[in-house]
UniProtKB/TrEMBL annotation:
Pfam families: Glyoxalase_2. This is Glyoxalase. It comes from the Bacteria. Residues 2-119 form the VOC domain. SUPFAM superfamilies: Glyoxalase/Bleomycin resistance protein/Dihydroxybiphenyl dioxygenase.
Length: 122
């Protein structure tokens, strides 16, 4: 058995496809009836589909998990985020940890938590 994908629920699949392409360079592999598979194994599912299938409500900003990305030029990434999505809600602004790694945490358009850090040295 192997883990194939990570699925997140989104309200506006078109806006989310653009968000994940603009910021992370993720491209569409499959776009099918409210389910979009992106490169790197991320799946976007329309909130209506999620509710129909599971019968469960979506809880934005639940902070129970996060998508983790690494970016060498995190300053340029942060500038792009602020320019393209000025309405972004931050959990932590760009900071440097005691061990030298830099990171930022914020919510996507639907309250899914994202962390971006520089790669670990060594």
């Amino acid at each position: 058995m192997r883990l194939r994908n990570i699925l997140i629920v989104v309200k506006d699949i078109e806006k989310s496809k653009k968000f994940y392409h603009d910021l992370f360079g993720l491209d569409i592999i499959l776009d099918n009836d409210g389910n979009v598979i992106l490169t790197e194994g991320l799946v976007l599912q329309d909130e209506k589909v999620w509710k129909d299938v599971t019968g469960k409500e979506v809880v934005p900003e639940n902070n129970s998990c996060e998508l983790y990305f690494e970016e060498r030029n995190i300053e340029a990434f942060t500038e792009k985020l602020e320019k393209l999505y000025p309405e972004t809600k931050y959990v932590t602004r760009l900071m440097t940890y005691s061990w030298g790694q830099k990171g930022i945490r914020f919510y996507d358009l639907d309250g899914n938590l994202i962390e971006v850090r520089t790669p670990m040295r060594g």
